[in-house]
Amino acid sequence: MLRLRPLTWPQDRDALARLDVSFATAVVDAVERRGPLELALVERRVDPPLTKRYAVDWDAVAAAPHVTVAERDGMVVGVAAVTWQAWNRRAELSHLYVDAAARGRGVGAGLLRAAEAAARSMGARRLWVETQQVNAPAIRFYLREGFTCCGWDAALYEDEREVAVFFVAPTT
Known about the structure:
Layout: E1 2-6, H1 13-17, E2 23-35, E3 38-52, H2 58-62, E4 66-72, E5 75-85, E6 90-98, H3 107-122, E7 126-132, H4 136-144, E8 148-153, E9 164-170
Parallel strand pairs: 6-7
Antiparallel strand pairs: 1-4, 2-3, 4-5, 5-6, 7-9, 8-9
Keywords: Transferase
GO molecular function, one term: N-acetyltransferase activity
Organism: Roseisolibacter agri
């Protein structure tokens, strides 16, 4: 059974640090320019599969105004953090990590529901999230969960082969 609870800091630090927040994929979304103002994500197979490991600053995660931890059988299996931008009443899902061994079992969806509830409690109009075009599993997850693509940034990352893709969902 999945249990969602608020972060307990710094007690949860070690459990979070043990999460495998990497991903591997044989499919990435290449960014194609189709015109001066039009970009498209086009699915491409990659061989060998791409593996990416995130270096997470857990202190920064813990500093978010709303952090939810997911536990299964007493073990921490995921975390989500939501920040707030008052000027446009937008909540940002600034972090969402599910341990690799726990994926595909509803942990991400549960954390996302908690993030949406936090966004509503903050008075947010929208919940916004960013991921990379190479993280096809995350892109598919956000689309399945009702998010829509709302923008791109080809200059956000130091690795210029990656493009930031932004998604948004209403909080109502």
